[in-house]
User: Which sequence fits this backbone?
């Protein structure tokens, strides 16, 4: 995404906060960002009027930024009628549902919180704070549930920002009275970083792999010189600093971030320390891959990137040595290499605040990611040991199940459209409203499942096609999970689409590639399959004279109603 358009919708005035947030987003995501702030308090009318200016310019993100104060009468922070607040909140929920139906782009809904001290009118048997806390819990639980049911919508826990800087520091003071500003400048700075992390998360541009040093990073001292008993690692200072670092890293692993090692050491000595030191939290089995040798770290990191099928921008290095960090930055541009605080005890809090490590929650899928990467390494070993690549692929006993997108598969299709970066031919991001428009215009959307001898059965690709103006079938988008790259799944998909085009009498199959630095794995997709380039972004395969053969190592299942293939 070269430019990002964000609109903040609120009852309050975000005008003086927007430039600060824009600056944070540009610095922390590397994306040129513009924030629009329609007249405060007017957005409900604008949403209800589909001919309003709100609909004239498509936005990438719509941020709904209401606070508890916005559900109260003006300046009525005391003697709050909770029943009236709840009634207004119900109106807000209805507005959010309407917005999701009408707006194209990802919706971000703020948690409800407050900076002013607010007191309910009647709280028998309870303190004021408890009553308000219960109301907020109820409201935010309802919002979170709503976000799970609305497509292309996420929940932003803004209370984390307020907790981090303090309620008094987040409060705008007199600027609320002067211009209805909802928060302070200090809040805007912290919020910008928080929002940056959230945007990276919803587009899956957050860190996927940690690259960890060992000496003076996971333990104090040098294992080669100090030996197992001489390194600092344990319950007492200074060793407990490194325990805290390892505990934090372990928490990232549970959230789905895979762990690797890159250390200048003797492999046997370092691996023995990892397995035998009684206070190690991270053990050899926690690392999906490692490079423990004396080669330049940048070379090792490139090897890790290739082995894990991850782009360099998906990797974050934790290394105490500034010289090594400089070498990596110089020779591996794109890798995240933060300068760590001098004080090791500050590392967990420092790392936790990095936008690249942001995550709202973790799922069973996240916690299984290490297992998936371990399986990928197992497959790499099997491929290396197989007599031929074809023999290896045949041994996987793979089945491709291709069929039209259904209501039950739409959510996964949208997730792939939204979050896939590497194998994404056009990097177009489709929301639910976009899908409806495509289908209404006659486009077809196919999902692809892959099963193999290891039991995986999930949707790993989705493609959209439409009839072109000159009788051709146009592939408008093809996205595929990077985890199945190298198995010729893309060839299987193109073979299916080629058969479809011939069966329906199309004169050609046309594909489009919009290249950027992140989708390099698919830059040569169409040329590698015999398509001729017709202009800078389009490729054409004449039919029926040319066909794309099905790879013999796939068994095909055609799911649902599809016109007869040749």
Assistant:
């Amino acid at each position: 995404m070269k430019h990002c358009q964000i609109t903040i919708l609120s009852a309050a005035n975000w005008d003086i906060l927007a430039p600060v947030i824009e600056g944070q987003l540009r610095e922390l995501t590397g994306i040129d960002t513009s924030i629009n702030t329609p007249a405060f308090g007017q957005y409900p009318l604008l949403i209800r009027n589909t001919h309003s200016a709100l609909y004239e310019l498509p936005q990438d993100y719509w941020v709904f930024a209401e606070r508890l104060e916005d559900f109260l009468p003006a300046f009525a922070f005391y003697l709050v009628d909770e029943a009236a607040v709840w009634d207004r909140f119900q109106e807000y929920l209805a507005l959010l549902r309407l917005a999701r139906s009408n707006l194209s782009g990802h919706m971000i809904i703020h948690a409800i919180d407050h900076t002013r001290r607010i007191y309910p009118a009647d709280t028998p048997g309870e303190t004021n704070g408890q009553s308000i806390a219960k109301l907020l819990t109820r409201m935010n639980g309802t919002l979170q549930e709503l976000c799970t049911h609305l497509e292309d919508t996420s929940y932003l826990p803004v209370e984390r920002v307020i907790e981090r800087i303090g309620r008094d520091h987040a409060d705008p003071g007199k600027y609320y009275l002067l211009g209805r500003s909802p928060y302070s400048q200090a809040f805007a700075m912290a919020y910008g970083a928080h929002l940056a992390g959230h945007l990276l998360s919803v587009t899956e541009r957050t860190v996927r792999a940690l690259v960890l040093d060992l000496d003076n990073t996971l333990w104090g001292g040098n294992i080669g010189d100090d030996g197992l008993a001489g390194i600092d690692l344990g319950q007492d200072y200074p060793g407990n600093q490194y325990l805290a670092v390892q505990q934090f890293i372990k928490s990232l692993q549970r959230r789905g971030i895979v762990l690797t090692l890159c250390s200048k050491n003797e492999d046997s000595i370092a691996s023995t320390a990892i397995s035998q030191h009684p206070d190690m939290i991270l053990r050899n089995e926690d690392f999906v891959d490692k490079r423990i040798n004396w080669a330049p770290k940048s070379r090792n990191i490139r090897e890790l990137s290739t082995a894990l099928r991850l782009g360099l921008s998906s990797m974050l290095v934790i290394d105490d040595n500034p010289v090594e960090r400089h070498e990596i930055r110089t020779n591996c541009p794109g890798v995240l290499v933060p300068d760590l605080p001098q004080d090791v005890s500050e590392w967990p809090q420092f790392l936790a605040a990095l936008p690249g490590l942001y995550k709202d929650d973790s799922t069973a899928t996240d916690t299984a990611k290490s297992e998936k990467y371990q399986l990928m390494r197992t497959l790499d070993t099997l491929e290396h040991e197989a007599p031929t690549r074809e023999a290896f692929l045949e041994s996987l006993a793979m089945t491709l199940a291709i069929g039209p997108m259904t209501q039950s598969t739409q959510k996964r299709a949208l997730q792939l459209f939204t979050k896939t970066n590497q194998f994404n031919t056009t990097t177009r991001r489709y929301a639910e409203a976009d899908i409806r428009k495509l289908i209404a215009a006659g486009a077809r959307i196919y999902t692809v499942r892959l099963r193999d001898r290891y039991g995986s059965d999930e949707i790993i690709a989705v493609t959209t096609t439409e009839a072109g103006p000159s009788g051709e079938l146009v592939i408008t988008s093809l996205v595929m999970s990077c985890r199945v790259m190298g198995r010729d799944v893309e060839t299987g998909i193109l073979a299916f689409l080629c058969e479809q085009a011939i069966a329906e009498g199309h004169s050609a199959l046309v594909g489009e590639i919009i290249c950027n630095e992140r989708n390099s794995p698919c830059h040569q997709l169409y040329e590698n399959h015999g398509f001729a380039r017709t202009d800078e972004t389009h490729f054409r395969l004449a039919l029926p004279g040319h066909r794309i053969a099905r790879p013999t190592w796939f068994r095909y299942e055609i799911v649902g109603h599809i016109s007869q293939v040749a």
